[in-house]
Amino acid sequence: MSRRLDGLTGWRADWAGLRVAVLGLGATGFAAADTLAELGCEVLVVAGGPDPDRERILEVLGVRFRLEEDRAAVPEELLDPPPELAIVSPGYHPILLELERRGVPIWGDIELAWRVRDKIEAAEWILVTGTNGKTTTTRLTGHLLRAAGLRAAEVGNIGVPVLDAVRRPEGFDALVVELSSYQLHRLPLTGPGALHPVAAVCLNVADDHLDWHGSRSAYEAAKGRVYANARVAAVYNRADPATIRMVEAADVEEGCRAIGFDLGVPGPSELGVIDGVVVDRAFLEDRHHRALELTTLPELAAAGLDSPHLVADVLAAAALARAAGVPAEAVHDALPTFRVDPHRTEPVATADGVAWVDDSKATNPHAADAALRSRPSVVWIVGGLLKGVDIAPLVERHAGRLRAAVVIGADRAPVLAALARHAPGVAVLEVMPGEDVDVMPEAVRLAAGVARPGDTVLLSPAAASMDQFADYADRGRRFADAVREHVADRLGGAGDDDAPPAAPHGP
């Protein structure tokens, strides 16, 4: 069977009749099942929850479906006979272990997409990963590519499955692929399924998803796979030692260059900032003596891109785009028209001298650190699912800028302990869980009760959202709605003045 799978390196290879199990029926699993059915495979989808709309489409496609809510159970259909291949999403560990024990090859959707990328025309791939900043950098890179006249799309973990993009009839010149550590974990480094991107970046590495990977070293190793077989540029963050180690250890193609970026003065083969000017000293012939101007910090400020973490994202995206041949002039002209994603340090309102900011996309401490660093006095709405990450260093680092903390979410004990230890003088208020508690209106009410003119009420939870919300976007929308209602009540002369004062834990 391995010989047959090794030969499956194009859309027109002999896929017909291949027995494939697809584990999961989210956007990625559905795209995989749809693709495999189109290729003529015999497909069985196993999912832990129902999805009536997608199930009906699978039936039309001739794809079998098995609902298995007990994820520890291995359906009989997967054992007798076992599939010849399995396509996975994270989460089906017991089933995966059994399939691996039986010798079933396991691919992720990214490997499958790479193998069939030539259905229309084989686009260049640019890979983006990192603990934080992935989505902004991915979207910005695509924006820069399109500004240079290339047909480009942002895909992968950003929300559009790669398998959908490679089957689009119009085709693409380039795909900017945002990759999570889960997706990278499954990617082969060599062989017919190994990716060969034109350029790749790991933006940064901080503790995240340690409950899934098991250790920081395993998480870092998964992120480092992004650089394997890069052909033109392996872009790394000079301010992050982990990304430097990754590039030094990466097995890239001959001729690939290591391109560094950070907010300091760049050396040759680097991008950086000189006296407020963002420059490229990597993609020009005389890089030892000259630099190309890409933009300026005032220009980035006008576009809302002047926060330090966003400037870093601009530098990374510019390096990737330049590696793909985008002229410096196109980078300069495109940046003013780019806007960051919602829920990433997004201003919601200002009232009574208090700014309200939605940073719900900060799903780990590293992301929250960027938002906290740029604000001198904060009422911090924090908490959710910590995913095995220690929040105490973040609390210790920013205790001096906290007016108060409003704690939400399921994993509240570590948050409360960290605040008690490292910020004992900070007022701590809790939104207690309960069926009759509407989390965000209550969090906004508590925050409003302690905020003072000049403060920022910052929703930057440093934790995942699925304990109390559908996702980080749902969390951010609910926060913004509650803030707008609060502001409207203030303007109408009602609301918080009549509410009882919150009872803080601390002074």
Quick take:
With 507 residues, the protein is an alpha/beta fold.
CATH hierarchy, class of the largest domain: Alpha Beta
Query: How many strands, what sense, and barrel or not for the largest sheet?
Result: 9 strands, mixed
Count of domains? 3
| Amount of beta strand | 15-25%
Strand numbers in spatial order across the main sheet: 7-8-6-9-10-11-12-13-14
Give the uncertain stretches in residue-range form. 493-507
Distance between the termini: 67 Å
- What is the count of DSSP helices, taking H or I runs of 4+ residues? 19
CATH arch. level architecture of the largest domain: 3-Layer(aba) Sandwich
Pairing-aware structural class of the strands and helices? alpha/beta
Q: Outline, from the CA principal axes?
A: globular
Q: Can you say what the CATH homologous superfamily of the largest domain is?
A: Mur-like, catalytic domain
Q: What is the CATH third-level topology name of the largest domain?
A: UDP-N-acetylmuramoyl-L-alanine:D-glutamate ligase
Rg, please?
24 Å
- Estimate percent helicity: 25-40%
